[in-house]
Every structure is written in C-alpha cells, then in structure tokens.
Amino acid sequence: MKFLLVPCVSRAAFEDINKEEEEGNVVKWPLRERILAFLGPYTYLLLIGRSSVIISYNAYVLGSMTNVHHRRSVAACLVQGVYILERDRQLQRHESQALAPPWWEFFQFKLLHQLKDDADFSIFGAIYEFKPPPSHSHSDLSKDGIPRYVIAFRGTLTKPDSFSRDLELDVHLIRNGLHLTSRFEIAIQAVRNMVASVGSSNVWLAGHSLGSAMAMLAGKTVAKTGVFLEAYLFNPPFVSAPIERIKDKRVKHGIRIAGSVITAGLALAAKINHHNTRLSEDPFLALSAWVPCLFVNPADDICSEYIGYFEHRKKMEEIGAGAIEKLATQHSLGGLFMNAIGKGNVANTSEPLHLIPSANLIVNSTPARDLKEAHGIHQWWKPDVQLKSQLYSYK
Length: 395
Prior knowledge:
The protein is α/β, with parallel strands linked by helices and 395 residues long. It has 13 helices and ten strands.
C-alpha cells in the first residue's frame, strides 16, 4: 500500500505554475497531481497500488506525521516552500499571486519567520509552526513525535538574483568554511533561539543540497552541546572524489582500504605531535547520539559518497580492521595532508561536514534520467520511489 500527500493550490495559482514550468523554474507535476490541484486545499491523494482515491483533508491532519514516509514527504515539501518563497520574492508575487503558501498550509503549518541573507537579502530559510486541530494539545504532539516547529533551508538557486551569493556559499562549503559565513550565523542563531524557547524535542531541521549542509552544520553544532534535533537532510553534499561511481567492487573497496590506512596513519601522527591531545580521545562520542536522516541518490555525485562512507565502515569491522576505520572515519585525508605540509588553517576551517558518526541512511535507487533529477528535491515526495533504509550507529 502506497500513500502520497500532495499540496494543492487554486486554479489561478496553478496556471502560474504551468507558466513557471515552461520557463524551467519549477518541477513538473504528474497528471494525477494536476487533477488534484483543482479540487482545493482541503483534499489529498491516497494511492493504493495502482488506484487513486481523493480523501478529505480531515482524514490526514495528524496520522500522516507519525508515518516515516509521510514525514519525508512533508519535510521535502517544507523545503520546497523555501525555494518558492525566494522565487516569489524575486518575481514580486505577493498575497494571492504567491505560489509558496500551499507547500506548508496544506500540511497545516504556518510560516512563522523568514530567514534572509544579510548580503543579498535572499530568503534562504524558513521557520514553520505546526497548527494542530483544537482537539490536540502540544503534549499530544510531543508524545507522537510530531514537531511544533520546523526550520527548513533551501539549496542553490540558479537565478541571477541569488545565484552569486549561493555560489559563494558553495565555495565556502567545499573549503570547509561554511561556519564562518554570515548566513550560517543567522541560521544557527535561529536554531538556538527556537530550541531555547520551545525545547529540542519540538524542533525539526530540514534542508536540501546547500540547505542540507546548513542544517547538518547547525545540527552538529548543537549536538556537541548535548542538544539532538531530528533532521531530514536531502542530497547532503559530500566533498570527495566520486569513488562510489567505480563499478568494480574490488577496485572500489581496495581504494577505500588504502585511503583508510593512510588517513588513520596521518591522524595518529598528528595526535602524537600534539602532546596535549590524548590518544584515547574520541571526538565522535559526543556526536554519536545524534542520528540525522540522510536522503541520498546513488546517481547523484554530490551526495552518493555517503553510501560508501558508511558501508565501508561496516566492511572494515567485518575484516577485523575496525580500529583503523574508527580513527580514519573521524578525519579527512585532504585536511590531514594540508596540515601535515603546513598549509592547513585551523582558525578558518573546521572538519568536513560529512564526518558524522551516526545516521539513518535512506537511499533512493529509482533510476534517474540525469544528475538534475538525481539531485532534485522533488524525488523525495514521490510515492513510487525505491527506498532502502539502513541505520548506522557509532560505537
């Protein structure tokens, strides 16, 4: 049995969406969603096998949020809402002409606050508040694991009004300097303020591409202080050579083993050189209880290395080399090499974002036509995706 939650918009707004599609600005919706869009904002589509049924909105409200697949769909739609928020700003679409509200209003969320970059004033994030029906209290939401607030971040937009700033952030990400940007300062302050106000159990993080990197960095930052936020990270960037693309498994595994041995050796040497650092110290322990949900596509070179990153750790344990990989997985070979030759700048860089101890890795193995489709946010609310989930816990 398959279910699909689809945000609905008015006919006038949908005509605008069709126009946007012709310009390549938004993803194309299948015919079933197009039909549904004319039915108003209080219905959604239920898919059972190959059949589809229109159900009243009241049947949805809370039950869907306790379903892991619906959580994925809702989180992805809230991130898409941030993308469309910025496009509404760029195209000066206001009030009834705005296309963004259905992406959160359908799921009974309210836009609480927009997060704007202080350099180009683009909207890069949003804070949503869930508005449950009167019959449900906030304690009921907490008990069912339903968030009161979701902080979502968009990725890079290839439009002139925001592309240059987004590209600048992408470069900072590659150079492991995202934590130094003013955009991240705005993001982490918003996260800290929300957690301080309502508690960590009431807050979710969500993001796509560059936005998932922003959400991951925020999640890692607060996790180091003992605050663990539920996170839905779609196509999170993994800055590395695309080893996962190698078809020969023996060659691929051999390259990864060699990389682990070299990385562990350099890491051990670095620890010995820093006499104040205890050899038994494990920086991953403080983060190990944080388990973000990583949504990756093997055809997406931007994020596919997460598959090998976690699978290789398991294989190294199986062949008795777990101790080597335990040390190697905490470090970046590139970063260690730069430090070894004196080129590393500790003050201006941090450890790569992909260095995380635990995760719930969800892989979409549905064939993709190209990189654009494999990296797109739209794949994560589709009902017919081929998903495989694996929990990796650091010990």
